[in-house]
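Moderator note: this is an archived Q&A kept for reference. The question asked for a predicted structure of one protein chain; the sequence and the answer are reproduced below.
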Amino acid sequence: MNVLVTGATGFVGANVARLLVADGYRVRVLARPASSVTALEGCAVEVVRGDILEPDSVARAIQGCAQVFHLAADYRLWAKDPSEIYRNNVDGTRIMLEACMHARVERVVYTSSVGTLGLPQDGSLGTETTPVSLHDMIGSYKRSKFLAERVAEEYVARGLPVVIVNPSNPIGPWEVRPTPTGQLILDYLLRRMFATLDTGLNLVHVADVARGHLLAAQRGRVGEKYILGCQNLSLTEIFRMLESVTGIRAPRVRVPHALIYVVALANEAVARATGRPPRVPLTGVRMACKHMYFNAAKAVRELGLPQTPVAQALREAVDWFVAHRYAPPPPAFRARVA
């Protein structure tokens, strides 16, 4: 079967493309002319150069494909011109789904984010049906993904067979351009983490997220959303796991959100003056005020989503960063290879 993957030069997209090839699919990827394909190194895919904002190149890329995995997204917590994020995530999704409609694609898997989902007021776990509105979205990235999800639902209503997946925070190999979660792991390896915050995330192995995409295409119900997640962990618990994996001592000091907020304000002021992304984006600090905990039971039950232990995912992420010289071998890594 011929399939198209957008966003395959990124972290999750590359893992989806690699899994599709391993499972015997003929994989085409749509990549911008200037995009590096390092994440697809050694992967037998057909690379078509184009842009999701160009209807003609999108139509060419889709031609002859029975399934489309639309993962392309502008994942930035800060942009000098936030309208770019909306164009890529909202307009790009509309152009892609319109082309899929014209091509009569058999199945579309649209990749959203748990960031578009609601969190219960009582502190329980978020699900696919927790009430949420645009007002609840923090920052341009989350707002744009929320609006893009509404576009996907619009095309479901028009008859396009779309299944929506909402990954949490993937970790693992082939993170060529580290996401915020990957950068946290890398900063830990580089011994840049001196304190912790009262926050929490849902982590999941990127291999499970990739498999979840394929399962969504095979078993997912049209118009339904599926959280692709695994384990809910506080930042302190994540650091303790990293301490076990790396041998690098975890931070013991917790700083208040108010202090980090002031640091973020200063960073954003410098960013506006220089045009360079802030090291501590204000949006990230505002998001960290909540424990982003979710329940992936629906995907486990209906799709058969794997649940690889997060400790293993962290170990594989660390091994990949070290093997590709993003960071020197930590003490535990040297002990394993000695």
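Archived answer notes: The beta strands are 2-6, 26-31, 46-49, 67-70, 107-111, 162-167, 169-171, 200-205, 225-228, 231-234.
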